[in-house]
Amino acid sequence: MSGARLAAVVGTQVRDLVRRRLALVLLTAIPLAYYGVLAAGGGHNAGYAIVPGTLGMAWPVAGGPMFAVLAAYRVDPLLVLAGYRPSELVLGRLVTGIAVGCLIGAVAFTVMAGISRPPHPGMLAVAMALIVVGGVPLGLAIAALLPRDLEATLVLILVDGMEMAVPKLSTIAPAFPFFASGHFLAAAGGTGPPTDVSLLGPTLVSLGWAAGLLALALQVWWRRVGVAPWARPAPTVMRRGSDPDPQVGAAEGGS
Fold it and tell me: How far apart are CA 115 and CA 75, in angstroms?
């Protein structure tokens, strides 16, 4: 893996996201607006608002790298032919996505900690960090499996919406990538012990989800854009007084 090529991928993705800054702002504003409506309602909703507000941040965190991969769908095979490795393309977008996700998470944490004032804001910060760690691989995996904007967006909405609807203590809760964030949010709001060792299990589950999704994205993307040495075009054989015959060149190149 080349550091120069990895840096070039990161730089390209940063410039692309800067051009799409309005879209990123709107993506971030959607869950924050939902949080603001719940927080302004008072009563039970005010204390509960940080849960859907934080889990909803998976939408912009995962959406950024997802749309970046979809935008480069036709370019990536050319980059691989030019010498880039599929792992460099995926990891470059992973680094960019995490950096942008940390920025989005910091803004959301500042807003929610300032308005809701949870009893344990450190737990809210950990929950937000886990959203970033799991959200970026989720976006990469969805884009690798579904290389169309509409289908990928609908799946992201489905996953994030189900995550917000599933109770954290239900038997199917570990089947979702942000399982640990729900437990940390309960601790942040005072409905769960902030130092309970049971937080370790959900954290490992969510980290396992992140690693699995990243491995899936890398594997699928490698199959899609990877070019084996024996699959590269064979050199053309030039015969005196005749046109180039690619089939002859391919046959002689493979012998």
Answer: 43
Residue 125's domain comprises 3-254
Distance in angstroms (rounded) separating the CA atoms of residues 170 and 173: 5
DSSP string, 166-177: S-TTSTTGGGST
User: What would the pLDDT profile of 75-131 be if each residue is shown by its tens digit?
Assistant: 888 887 887 887 788 888 889 999 999 999 999 999 999 998 888 899 999 999 999
b/e code 34-60 from CB counts within 10 Å (16+ = b): bbbebbeeeeeeebbbbbbbbbbbbbb
Helices (H), the chain: 3-19, 21-41, 43-48, 50-55, 58-71, 76-81, 86-116, 121-145, 149-165, 179-188, 200-225, 246-254
Number of compact structural domains in the chain: 1
The reported pTM is 0.81
